[in-house]
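Hi there,

I know you've been waiting on this one. I reran it after we fixed the sequence typo, so this is the corrected version. Both the input and the resulting structure follow.
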Amino acid sequence: MSHRAPGADRLPALAAPGGELDRLVGAGVRTVGAGAVWAVGDAGGGLGGGGHGVLGRGPYARLVPGPDTLYDLASLTKVVALWPCAGVLWESGRLPLDEPLGRWWPPASGRAAGAVTVRQLLAHTAGMLPYTRFEQLYGRDPAAIRAGVLAAPLHRAPGTAVEYTDRAAVLLGHLVEELGGAPLDVLAARWAWHPLGMADTRYGPLDAALLDRTAPTEYDESTGGHLRGVVHDPSARLLGGVSGNAGAFSTARDLGRFLTALLAPPPALPWGGAWIEESLREQTGGLRPARGLSWLYAPGTEPAEGTFVHYGFTGTGFWVSRRLGRWALLLTNKVHHDRVTQPLTDLRNAFRRSVFG
């Protein structure tokens, strides 16, 4: 059962240097074994944040994480890049949420994926295969991979279960690019990142000039070094680094701007209040785990509490509650050290309880 959420008047003290959140994350990174950056804010922007630990081993042990450290967002890309682009297309009438794809998008006609809707793709109820295995199944050509995802048989009937899968975001990324008339990195910059002043947010591979402030992820046998500024996710790497499921890099500073906009959308934002309201409510019809569009209800909370989260495999995560009017983020590069997730899960849950109850 979730704890009572702290009142808005308590948030600045929680987020103050040396306050509860700073102590919690500082102790947590020692258990997790990876450095971390955190921040908390409301509709007015950031209320506080901090960094703890170091970015990694060896040469990275001299580097400490901060608000301008670039992190491989992994699956946070689904929210920071893909979701707002889908919102622009929906708000302009180009992306129907409830018409099966095969009825209106020619590439899906006659394909297994033609039976699913955009709402089901965003809520992870489309019934698509739960694994990727793209190289093994389709080879290394991005066009062949996209065709393979469209043609793959469904794992189960659409709308019958919540099953998180990267395939949904890969397919939706393809669709958004076709409807938007540009690659996803261009659309995300045009429609989300530039309007919000997210100057550091981009798809990789990152320029050499940015690598000094980029968190390294996992050791890569093929290159004989840690991945740094190159997407960790193998599916996104096969797709050239730009995909709906992963591939974006960002900083705590930029993500704070993004999360603030969910609580107070700027008037000129092309995916404003209507899309945010539609997305941050239950979309899974009572199926569990309950999800919105792209967002997950935070584990350990009830849907009625309205606290949403998204995590990234590399060790990233952020939360937002419109009901409470607050957001939070916790960025680590956990996979640099190992893939043992329980200590990070424990830290995430403790952090969420402190901010949202």
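Quick highlight: The chain has a mean pLDDT of 97.

Best,
R. S.
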